């Protein structure tokens, strides 16, 4: 199978039209999915554990008599870690340490309470407190994602969240001696939960898991916020329960944008484009470069490397359907186009990436320099890999400690301060026709 990303040049007359067509991706959820999700949420809200058990059997092929059979104990998580090869144990611990270190620094920079007193003695400030309980959704259908466990649980732990509830589907793959279906529990995912400090974990998934976390059941505790990616059913469920609980974001297909000046080996750039294309057919991989000969070299690398990739069919479908190799007039123009795209992952594959970084305003994560492959950020660099997609980096941020905290304003008005503020409030409240507001402020005035 050949992979031929769309070749464009910003100098061609129809560039804008073709560019917008290639970027387009509809986030609209299928109406049938929305209806089914609404029914599942309502059922779990009404019947709790019984509904979750029925949907787990129906969708995952996993039959259990009670929810306790679907909860992973701390002993099981620990045993999964201890059963791993030493090299995997060390990789998990090293990745977790770097993720924790980054989020500890993030907490110090932006997650602390503060207050001050003004000249009349009035105290003003902000109190930052962690959420009591959060739920993290870890995909577990087609693949296992221990890195997602680390990226969701560790910042919650650093923020001081009291309880972290993990849900992960374990679709049935085989049957035990008695003929009962057995879910496939990935030991790396369980070990990651142990390393990251997950409080409780359940082998449930889909819209029913989101409903259980949002509404609570006799077994699954209700949480304050749900984070983590999932399929279309999970995304639709998260959208619907928002307001009852908080959510991190509604994730779209994965994206990578590479800004290249032609100084990086083309094989490296081709593989970086593959790294997102292999996620699924809707993933998007784009190269922006002012060197036409280099773009041709990257296409040659794609042709050379694709046949050896185990997921070559998915990569080819992604590159053919949504990929693009764009020849720009300059690196400055490439930076301008990047800001319009606002990609999830942005690689600045340049001999001097810091020359261009100040021009880049919108991206989930920016990877500077030829040696900084996006995959390092996915697993172990430290910053979070849960990133805004589909252009939402224009107004949203990576998952972080701040997503597991909330802020309360602190106000303590002194007697002296009440004399000034009370008069201001009185005038404005009368102007709004809210006399009780005005009188409450006026009663604190000395000459009242």
Structure commentary:
With 448 residues, this protein is an alpha/beta fold. The protein folds into 3 domains: 151 residues, Rossmann fold (3-Layer(aba) Sandwich); 217 residues, 3-Layer(aba) Sandwich (Rossmann fold); 30 residues, no CATH class. It contains 16 helices and 17 strands. The strands form 4 sheets. A 6-stranded parallel beta sheet has the order 1-14-13-12-15-16, sandwiched between helices. Strands 2-9-6-5-10-11 form a 6-stranded mixed beta sheet, sandwiched between helices. Helix 5 packs parallel to helix 6. The N and C termini lie far apart (84 Å). About 1% of the residues have low confidence.
Tell me the layout of helices and strands.
Elements: E1 6-9, H1 15-23, H2 31-47, H3 49-60, E2 71-72, H4 74-82, H5 86-110, E3 114-117, E4 123-130, E5 133-137, H6 146-159, E6 163-167, E7 172-175, E8 181-183, H7 187-196, E9 200-202, H8 206-215, E10 225-227, H9 232-241, E11 246-247, E12 255-260, H10 266-277, E13 284-289, H11 292-305, H12 312-322, E14 324-327, H13 331-341, E15 345-349, E16 365-368, H14 374-379, E17 405-412, H15 415-432, H16 435-442
Parallel strand pairs: 1-14, 5-6, 5-10, 6-9, 10-11, 12-13, 12-15, 13-14, 15-16
Antiparallel strand pairs: 2-9, 3-4, 4-17, 7-8
């Amino acid at each position: 199978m050949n992979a031929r990303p769309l070749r464009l040049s910003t100098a061609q007359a129809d560039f804008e039209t073709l560019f917008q067509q290639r970027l387009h991706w509809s986030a609209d959820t299928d109406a049938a999915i929305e209806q089914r999700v609404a029914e599942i949420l309502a059922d779990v809200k009404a019947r709790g554990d019984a509904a979750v058990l029925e949907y787990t059997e129906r969708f995952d092929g996993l039959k259990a008599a009670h929810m306790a059979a679907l909860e992973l104990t701390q002993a099981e998580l620990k045993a999964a870690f201890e059963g791993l090869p030493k090299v995997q144990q060390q990789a998990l611990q090293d990745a977790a340490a770097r993720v924790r270190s980054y989020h500890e620094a993030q907490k110090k920079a932006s997650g602390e309470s503060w207050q001050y007193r003004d000249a009349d003695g009035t105290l003003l400030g902000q109190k930052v407190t962690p959420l009591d309980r959060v739920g993290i959704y870890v995909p577990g259908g087609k693949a296992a994602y221990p890195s997602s466990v680390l990226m969701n649980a560790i910042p919650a732990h650093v923020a001081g969240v009291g309880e972290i509830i993990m849900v992960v589907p374990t679709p049935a793959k085989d049957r035990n001696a008695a003929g009962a279906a057995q879910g496939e529990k990935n030991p790396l995912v369980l070990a990651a939960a142990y390393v990251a400090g997950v409080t409780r974990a359940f082998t449930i998934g889909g819209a029913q898991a989101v409903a259980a976390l949002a509404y609570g059941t006799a077994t699954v505790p209700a949480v304050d916020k749900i984070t983590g990616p999932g399929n279309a059913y999970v995304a639709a469920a998260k959208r619907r329960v928002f307001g009852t609980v908080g959510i991190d974001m509604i994730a779209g297909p994965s994206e990578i944008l590479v800004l290249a000046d032609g100084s990086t080996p083309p094989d490296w750039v081709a593989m970086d484009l593959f790294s997102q294309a292999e996620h699924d057919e809707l993933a998007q991989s784009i190269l922006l470069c002012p060197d036409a000969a280099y773009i041709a070299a990257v296409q040659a690398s794609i042709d050379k490397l694709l046949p050896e990739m185990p997921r070559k069919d998915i990569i080819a479908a992604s590159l053919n359907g949504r990929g693009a190799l764009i020849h720009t007039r300059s690196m400055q123009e490439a930076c301008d186009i990047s800001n319009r795209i606002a990609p999830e992952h942005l690689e600045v594959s340049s001999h001097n990436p810091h020359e261009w970084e100040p021009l880049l305003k919108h991206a989930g994560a920016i990877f500077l320099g030829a040696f900084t492959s996006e995959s390092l950020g996915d697993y172990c660099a430290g910053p979070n890999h849960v990133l805004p997609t589909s252009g939402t980096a224009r107004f949203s941020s990576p998952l972080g400690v701040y997503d597991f905290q909330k802020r309360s304003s602190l106000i303590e008005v002194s007697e002296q301060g009440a004399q000034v503020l009370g008069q201001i409030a009185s005038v404005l409240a009368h102007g709004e026709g809210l006399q009780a507001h005005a009188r409450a402020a006026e009663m604190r005035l000395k000459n009242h």
